[in-house]
Design a protein that fits this description.
The structure holds two protein chains of two kinds. Chain A has 20 helices and two strands. Chain A is mostly helical. Chain A has a two-stranded antiparallel sheet. Chain B folds into two domains: about 60 residues, no CATH class; about 200 residues, MetI-like fold (Orthogonal Bundle). Helices cover about 70% and strands about 0% of the residues of chain B. Chain B starts with 8 loop residues before the first helix and ends in a 6-residue tail after the last helix. Chain B is globular, with a radius of gyration of 24 Å. Classes of the chains: A mainly alpha, B mainly alpha. At the A-B interface, helix 2, helix 11, helix 12, helix 13 and helix 15 of A face helix 1, helix 4, helix 5, helix 6 and helix 7 of B.
Chain lengths: ~425, ~300
């Protein structure tokens, strides 16, 4: 056909334009029209959501603030030959002397927080020194050697380790926060080393986050599979009724469900009360089920269970019951028929539900925070902690970025397996 | 699902175990929601079933509406340590305010976008779809951190505008998904018929398309509303005391003063979710009927 048209005389529309061009034009117009409809929302999401996320990613490697505070010092510092000289040359001391004495107080304060991440002790050292330099400048003291004057103000200025810690801050981009988020830091020679024993908390939390997510996914599958099967095979009037039991928790506020679990699980709570009343437990033998990892596991399983049941249900609903009958007819025992015929057909549902639950669990924050106590905290806790309490935003952003990376990989998998458009709600 | 007559005893036992197991799971799903309701009517200031509540005949002193009165800000007994004030009511007003405005914006933007996305000529459909639903996928804590940093730069932190913008971003994916799903069953010949009869695009939309996809739009709007109404992580970081919402107040309540007032609010929210669930289910059926999809 193609060849025919190109060789033969072109078909023209009534306006005298070749039909092919006219069609192309209309299609392009339709494309633009469709795009214009999507455009407002796309722009909105990009501005209010995508840009902030990228801003956070930028912040996770950003180290420019400190470079605006000590430009001269850093410049001189780079000239310091560490093998030849024990301490930095006089010029470095002079530069930092004036940058501390004349710099903007607020900016120096902000940079201090950053300096303290690389070595604790900077904060008090700089603050004390700054006060003394201000006095010096006011009194117009004549200084012969800035090096000696600074060491006189505080002997820590003669401590090499402080100067070595400065190496990490010289660049405007730094991977330090990512290393921190994985319990690593730099030593004096800029090698990546493990943090000191008592500061290693994040790897443990990452592992725990994974562990809890795997457990929750497993429990959801274990509890959700039979229920989805029952719902898919019951007559509609019963299954619709039972579906409410799945959908109502799904629609209920997360905080309400979390609160409800505190009521259920606490030492004077409903479950302990019932067990004591039944005589299973003695009154002083009440079990501590909340404010620890058990509480997090139980509450998260219940909260995420609907996300497992719903995809499983929609897959099981379309498996024809005749398949199992055919298998039985061919001599398969019920168990064999189930494992060889039914189960393989539910795999899309299991992977969809499993990934959905896992992905939601890994980023969970509210529930572990409220029912997790001290040992039930997941990585979300530390992100919030650095965001609100320590204000170590670089570290907060780096942890967020790592979590985001994990999520994206998982969603890429999800998309491969089930397709992102197949997400169903209720 | 009745057992066929040729079932062996072993299979029979397994079947009863299976039904029992499902029953336990249903109980596990519902029990916490049901348990809080009676406790919210307790007169004791603790989160538990008191002796009086368990006794038979019921002890009238053990039951009371006292915490509900607290919730709406009627504080007659001053001797109790539980703080009583208008916080819950202010939170309710703010929650409805933020929820309503963000639902209106989200539904409008989301519906228009869904119309575009369901056009067969839509370019880069996959990419655009993944951008549009990304707020639903990224964990809230990351979204909250990112938005906090960025909105702080443009002075939107601790304002209603900032929270509403954040909530709109979070809730549009739900609108896009539900409305796109409804549009799958929409017969585009209807639009063509209307236009061939001389209706302009706007008129076609409001007179023909919208009435047909309305159930989907309303479900999307309800999803959007509940998303905003329930949202606590963003509010926790981006709201000051001025923008106190119900979830923020509940969060503070659970962390600081565990008072039964929280359970009263929780009960109200359960009632609200029953209402929303029923509405969405009814709309879903109606939409399926309209589109001629038989009940599966």
């Amino acid at each position: 056909m193609e060849a025919n048209i190109s060789t033969a005389e072109q078909i023209l529309t009534t306006d005298g334009i070749p039909l092919k061009d006219s069609l192309k034009k209309t299609e392009r117009r339709n494309k633009i029209k469709a795009f214009l409809l999507v455009f407002p929302l796309l722009l909105f999401i990009i501005v209010t959501f995508i840009v902030p996320i990228f801003d956070m990613l930028g912040r996770s490697i950003d180290d420019s603030q400190i470079n605006t505070v000590y430009p001269k010092t850093f410049e001189e510092y780079k000239k310091w030959d560490k093998d030849a000289e024990e301490l930095p040359p006089e010029e470095v001391y002079k530069a930092i002397y004036y940058e501390l004495g004349e710099g903007d107080k607020i900016q120096i304060g902000r940079a201090l927080t950053r300096m303290n991440y690389s070595k604790s002790g900077w904060k008090s050292l700089i603050k004390k020194t700054q006060r003394q330099i201000k006095k010096d400048l006011k009194a117009e003291v004549v200084i012969a050697s800035y090096k000696e004057r600074l060491i006189e103000i505080n002997e820590k200025w003669a401590d090499r380790t402080y100067w070595y810690a400065m190496t990490q801050m010289l660049n405007e981009r730094t991977p330090i926060y990512y290393w921190n988020a994985l319990d690593r830091t730099y030593d004096a020679e800029m090698n990546v080393v493990m943090q000191s024993e008592e500061r290693r908390i994040y790897i443990k939390t990452w592992i725990k986050t994974f562990k809890v997510s795997v457990y929750v996914t497993f429990f959801c599958l274990l509890l959700g599979f039979p229920v989805a099967h029952l719902l898919a095979n019951l007559p509609l009037r019963y299954s619709n009724l039972l579906m409410i039991f799945v959908l109502l928790p799904f629609w209920t506020s997360l905080l309400v469900r979390t609160t409800a679990w505190i009521v259920m699980l606490q030492q004077n709570g409903v479950i302990n009360g019932v067990l004591v009343w039944l005589g299973v437990l003695s009154d002083d033998g009440r079990i501590q089920m909340v404010y620890n990892e058990t509480g997090t596991l139980i509450a998260m399983t219940q909260i995420l269970l609907p996300f497992m049941i719903l995809p499983l249900y929609s897959v099981m609903k379309v498996i024809p019951p005749s398949h199992l009958r055919a298998a039985a007819n061919l001599g398969a025992k019920p168990f064999t028929a189930f494992v060889r015929v039914y189960l393989p057909q539910t795999v899309p549902g299991m992977s969809a539900g499993g990934l959905l639950v896992f992905v939601l669990a890994i980023g969970y924050f509210i529930t572990p925070e409220l029912v997790g106590g001290k040992d039930g905290q997941l990585i979300g806790h530390w992100i919030a902690y650095h965001l609100k309490t320590t204000l170590n935003w670089g570290l907060c952003a780096a942890m967020g970025a790592i979590l985001l990376g994990i999520m994206l990989i998982l969603y890429w998998l999800y998309n491969k397996i089930v397709g992102i458009e197949n997400i169903k709600l209720g | 699902m009745a057992l066929p007559s040729y079932t062996k005893p072993g299979e029979r036992i397994f079947y009863y175990f299976y039904v029992f197991f499902c029953g336990v799971v249903f109980f596990f799903l519902m029990a916490p929601l049901v348990a809080i309701i009676p406790i919210s009517f307790s007169s004791s200031p603790f989160f538990l079933f008191t002796e009086g509540m368990m006794s038979w005949p019921p002890d009238p002193d053990a039951w009371s509406f006292r915490w509900y009165r607290y919730m709406v800000g009627i504080c007659e007994d001053k001797n109790l340590t539980t703080p009583c004030g208008d916080k819950w009511m202010r939170g309710t007003v703010n929650s409805f305010y933020v929820g309503t405005i963000s639902t209106l914006i989200a539904t409008t933007l989301g519906t228009i976008a869904a119309l575009g996305l369901s056009k067969p000529h839509m370019p880069f459909k996959g990419l655009i779809m993944s951008i549009l639903i990304s707020p639903m996928i990224v964990p809230l804590i990351i979204t909250a951190a990112g938005m906090f940093f960025f909105y702080a730069k443009v002075n939107l932190v601790y304002t209603f505008t900032g929270i509403i913008l954040a909530h709109v971003a979070l809730s549009t994916p739900f609108v896009v998904i539900t409305v796109t799903a409804t549009l799958v069953g929409y017969d585009t010949n209807m639009t063509r018929a209307a236009q061939s009869l001389g209706a302009r695009p706007m008129k076609t939309f409001f007179k023909v398309t919208m009435p047909l996809i309305l159930p989907g739009i309303i479900s999307g709007a309800l999803f959007a509303f509940i998303t905003s109404f329930d949202e606590v992580v963003i509010v926790m970081f981006m709201a000051s005391i001025e923008q106190l919402t119900i979830p923020k107040q509940m969060w503070a309540g659970i962390r600081q003063e565990i008072s039964p007032v929280i359970l009263c609010m929780a009960t109200c929210l359960v009632v609200l979710s029953i209402f929303l669930l029923t509405t969405v289910e009814m709309l879903r059926r109606r939409s399926e009927n309209l589109r001629g999809i038989a009940h599966r």
